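Hey, does this match?
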Amino acid sequence: MRSTGPAVAGSDPPATKWFMLAIVSAGFVAMTVNWFNISTGFGAIGEEFGVAIPDVAFLISIFVAAYGILHIPGGLLATKWGLRRTLALGLAIEAVGSLLSATATSFEMLVVWRALAGVGASIFAAVGIAAVSVWFRDHQHALALGVSSAAFSVGTALGLYTWADITAATSWRTSVVTGGVLCLAVAALSALCFRVPRGLDSLTGVHLTREGLKKTLVNKEIWLFGLAFFGAYGSYLGASQLISGYGADRAFPDGQIAAAAFLIGIAGVPGSIAAGWLADRYLTPRILFMIGAVLEAVFLMSVPFAGPGTFWIPALGIGFMFNFVFAIWQTVPGSIRSIAPENIGTAVGLMLTISAAGGFVLPWAFGLIVDGPGYTAAWIFLGVVSALTVGFCLFSRTRTRATLPPRGARDLDRAVGAAEA
């Protein structure tokens, strides 16, 4: 007799998890478009509000600051409300922040709305990684996260390159509105179509427990990998948005500057997928993470030594290696046995919060060094910090394959037993 009991986790049609991955990946594209597209209007924003370009760059820092503070609350919301509603909420808040940015009548108001957009991105980012992990935790985990990380890169490239054309053809206000509408559309798609695997009802929302929070927030592996990514993460966030200004300061041709801005984003697509493929088959995540971070540091330090014809090479290398590292780094929370599936978002949020501090501190330090010793010292500084902080993962003991934690395994066993009854 056919069972009428609870659906079994893993009984979903094979195509379902890939459809869920596509939804989350679209969210990462929308999230990063609305993160980076504001930089294409810096010149016009500075002129309109009478603000110098170095001060306009504060819009980068305020977004990243807001982005860094709500990763953990976003994860807690996902535990309490479920993944689907939290994914949609994060994108909707970012969309509203972008749309309101277009209404700003002062620079101070624009700063507020950019912070709001950062809050939305903060909520979505950690939960988006968790939403992929729960579908691929036991098979093709790194590859799936490589795909979603590639979507991050696509959004970065679109925001820096395609949205530059939109800004040039219209205005910076129209440009951010376009990005906001895209983000709102993907938020609606997430609310309507995303769901969690069958049999894992805890992912639709459960009560927060002290034990679950303790196992997540004081986990040694989470802290080590968060600190290990501090330099590489913060350096990329700064480099991707400052490399165009550096090229202009060096009087490089506009075509070379545009190519560098595009490549530092789009190169992450093959970088992410290559990392996922390698991590699932050959080397341990820790080894690949360290190799990638050190190579990113090398490319960062090579930027000031590139000429007009080779400016694109370090840009490509930075983008490729950052996303190579990012894809592997995201697998850590899903591979820790003691972290329940519903708490993966909070674990990712903690890692992102630690690392995102670099996104605020390092661009600020970069600017101070440029005003002193100059650009060469500033780029070398980013590379050195990236190479040094990766050493934290030497103290980790991550496993090579993800496994369900005890609670997740019990949920699955109960579902299987009910289905077989």
About this structure: Confidence is low (pLDDT under 50) at residues 1-9, 400-421.
